[in-house]
Specification:
Pfam families: Arginase (PF00491)
GO molecular function, one term: agmatinase activity
Helix content: 25-40%
Structural class: alpha/beta
Strand order of the largest sheet: 4-1-5-10-9-6-7-8
Number of helices: 8
Distance between the termini: 31 Å
CATH architecture: 3-Layer(aba) Sandwich
Number of strands: 10
InterPro entries: Agmatinase-rel, Ureohydrolase, Ureohydrolase_dom_sf, Ureohydrolase_Mn_BS
Largest sheet: 8 strands, parallel
Protein name: Agmatinase
Strand content: 15-25%
Family: Belongs to the arginase family. Agmatinase subfamily.
CATH superfamily: Ureohydrolase domain
Order of helices and strands: EHEEEHEHEHEHEHEHEH
Shape: globular
CATH topology: Arginase, Chain A
CATH class: Alpha Beta
Length: 290
């Protein structure tokens, strides 16, 4: 299969079928091999695409529409079931190729571990990279029950890779005390519970820098996103998350890539979570790519 061929048939609404003409590449990472509670996020990317047919192509928030943006939906990367290391290697290689061709990578998970190889590839290209991370969980463990490849470890991995002071987490309301202590001792920014207001304060400090945005859908309260593997009460509203995406979009930071992870459709028969994720993807594309 050629690099510019889609991996699967379903495409996000408004996608351009021509890879070469497209600035943005939307791709799925259907992996949930390391989750510690409920599996199912490997079905997230496909369902987000399927429900996107219910979206309007126009964003009244940003006064842009998908037809204004050339983007290509590459489908899901075929990842080997139960093999996290090979899956990580395949993801890093794929994103590395996108970056070599000056594409804007927008990924859909899958569990949050899939963000680690993407961020690693981004850091190889952008030497002053900063990470904006929105999540219910710290994801700063070194391992989970002795396993270093876990969806609870990606932020610790990228923090150690590019330096903790370059990682900014928002909406955090769950994690081990040791994780919070490690962040504080190493100068990593963590905003507990809230996203929008602390994000507004932080964005001017990141002006001009290349920034990668990773969003775990469980930053939302379970009332807004029940379809995820590790729900955690006390989260933000979908309105606040949309406003946070728009705040980044209107800021002076240089967003160079992004992802949205941990949508597990099987736990939400109303499909509220997948539909919310689909709208978030639209706003990320239209907002982050100038």
């Amino acid at each position: 299969m050629r690099f510019d061929e889609a991996y699967s048939g379903n495409v996000f609404i408004g996608a351009n079928p021509d890879y070469n003409e497209s600035k943005v590449v939307l791709y799925g990472m259907p992996m949930d091999w390391t989750v510690s509670y409920r599996p199912g996020s490997r079905f997230g990317p496909a369902r987000i695409r399927e429900v996107s047919i219910g979206l309007e192509e126009y964003s009244p928030y940003l006064d842009r529409e998908l037809f204004d943006l050339n983007y290509y939906d590459a489908g899901d990367i075929p990842l080997p079931f139960g093999n996290p290391q090979k899956s990580i290697d395949l993801i890093e290689d794929y994103v590395g190729k996108l970056l070599a061709e000056d594409k804007f990578p927008l990924g859909m998970g899958g569990e949050h571990l899939v963000s680690w190889p993407v961020m690693k590839a981004m850091a190889a290209k952008y030497k002053d990279l900063a990470i904006i991370h929105m999540d219910a969980h710290t994801d700063l463990r070194e391992h989970y029950e002795g396993e270093p490849l876990s969806h609870s470890t990606p932020i610790r991995k990228i923090a150690e890779h590019i330096g903790p002071k370059n990682v900014y987490s928002f909406g955090i309301r769950s994690g081990m005390k040791e994780e919070f202590d490690w962040a504080k001792e190493n100068g990593m920014h963590i905003s507990k519970f809230e996203v929008l207001e602390p994000l507004k304060e932080m964005l001017p400090k990141l002006a001009g820098r290349p920034v990668y945005v990773t969003i775990d859908i469980d930053v939302l309260d379970p009332a807004h996103a029940p379809g995820t593997g590790t729900v955690d009460a006390g989260g933000i509203t979908s309105k606040e998350l949309l406003a946070s995406i728009h705040e980044i979009a209107r800021s002076e930071v240089n967003v160079v890539g992004a992802d949205l992870v941990e949508v597990a459709p099987i736990y939400d028969h109303s499909e509220q979570t997948a539909n919310t994720a689909s709208k978030l993807i639209r706003e990320m594309m239209l907002g982050f790519v100038k």
